[in-house]
Design a protein that fits this description.
This protein has 362 residues and is an alpha/beta fold. The chain contains 13 helices and twelve strands. It has two domains: 2-8 and 237-355, Alpha-Beta Complex (Aspartate Aminotransferase, domain 1), CATH 3.90.1150.10; 14-232, Aspartate Aminotransferase, domain 2 (3-Layer(aba) Sandwich), CATH 3.40.640.10. The protein is globular, with a radius of gyration of 21 Å.
């Protein structure tokens, strides 16, 4: 399988898998127990906390472990307390649905490149605004947002697509809350973290024991957390040249292909391209039959008949959104794989366009 869907999830790195297996097999204590077995588990958790803090440029005590990005986003939004929330039209459902469930929220639009205008955020603020949530990098287009903090209002950023892939320093970003998840940077699924700036009051959403400084009850996922730490300690993937080879190859070889968010600062692993006259889902299936994994957008919405809410928020028509494909490169991809992808893609697009009743350039 040639895997070009790293924004959906990434393969676990061998050194991370080794930590996961070793801790799962051997470290069975409860980190809250005072005996030696407990203390050994506690050490694993605290080592990982330091590794994650190092990745994000913060203090270990500012890290709260969660079950992943979705929980981190929900903890940020609900934990901030009651009040108006401002967010954006291109957020992941973990933020958008949480903000709507939380209550009163304003959703600001984006430009045709998928960028949020900080002035639009400012104009949406109200005296009762409690939290602004703007994602750092978009999962479908890779567009990187400018984050602006407003006095007296908490700033949350969903950094799930950015952390472990590009340099992130939460102090420089000026955020109060920042979500990450291990499985987007070669760690296991089901474990993540929320950065909570020292001094920010955050209420728990899970009630129970006094774990994680009373911010997240429940016995820690020790092996998962240790593996998250190990993934955080990996060098950042160096994939820009591969992504550029892929994108430039597509544009050179396939006519009527347009890069979405081309004018935005973008993650160096992501290329979202629309192929006129094609059903994205058909192309996904054609590539899958050839052993290549790509997607039409967010993993959680593929298979859905609805066009991407991110692309339509950028002003694409539903038809344009549905002919868009997301290629996301990861640390284990090679030039040869990119070249195989390009050969297969060129043929598949040509074949599907021949059959397409809506392709007008034939
Ligand atoms: C931008 C973004 N936020 C949140 C999530 C949810 O993270 P998780 O799958 O760890 O719950 C994802 C990915 O699935 C994502 O891409």
């Amino acid at each position: 399988m040639l895997y070009f869907d790293n924004n959906a999830t990434t393969p676990i790195a061998p050194e991370v898998l080794a930590v996961l297996q070793q801790v799962q097999a051997e470290v069975y204590g409860n980190p809250s127990s005072i005996h030696r077995a407990g203390q050994e588990a506690r050490r694993c958790v605290e080592t990982a906390r330091a590794q994650v803090a190092q990745l994000l440029g913060c203090d270990p005590k500012e890290i709260v472990f969660t079950s992943g990005g979705t929980e981190a986003d929900n903890l940020a939004i609900f934990g901030a307390g009651p009040g108006h929330v401002v967010t954006t039209a291109i957020e992941h459902p973990a933020v958008l649905a949480a903000a709507h469930a939380h209550g009163d929220c304003t959703v600001v639009p984006v430009s045709s490149d998928g960028l949020v205008d900080p002035d639009d955020i400012r104009r949406a603020l109200r005296p009762d605004t409690r939290l602004v949530s703007v994602m750092h990098a978009n999962n479908e287009t890779g567009a990187i947002q400018t984050l602006t903090r407003h006095e007296g209002i908490l700033l949350h950023s969903d950094g799930v697509q950015a952390a472990g892939r590009m340099p992130v320093n939460v102090r420089e970003l000026g955020v109060d809350l920042y979500s990450i998840t291990a499985h987007k940077f070669n760690g296991p699924k089901g474990v993540g973290a929320l950065y909570v700036r020292d001094g920010v009051k955050l209420a728990p959403i899970l009630h129970g024991g006094r774990h994680e400084r009373e911010r997240r009850a429940g016995t820690e996922n020790v092996a998962g957390i240790a593996a998250l730490g190990a993934a955080a300690a990996l060098p950042l993937p160096n994939v820009k040249a591969l992504r550029d080879r892929l994108e430039q190859g597509v544009l050179a070889r396939i006519p009527h292909a347009i890069v979405n968010s081309a004018g935005a600062p973008r993650m160096n692993n992501t290329s979202n391209i629309r192929f006129e006259g094609i059903e994205g889902e058909s192309l996904v299936i054609a590539l899958d039959l050839a052993g290549i994994a790509v997607s039409t957008g967010a993993a959680c919405s593929s298979g859905a008949v609805h066009p991407s809410h991110v692309l339509t928020a950028m002003g694409l028509t539903p038809a344009q959104a549905k002919c868009s494909m997301r290629f996301s490169v990861g640390r284990f991809n090679t030039e040869q794989q990119v070249d195989t992808l390009l050969d297969t893609l060129e043929k598949a697009v040509a074949r599907l366009r021949k059959l397409s009743p809506v392709y007008t350039h034939a």
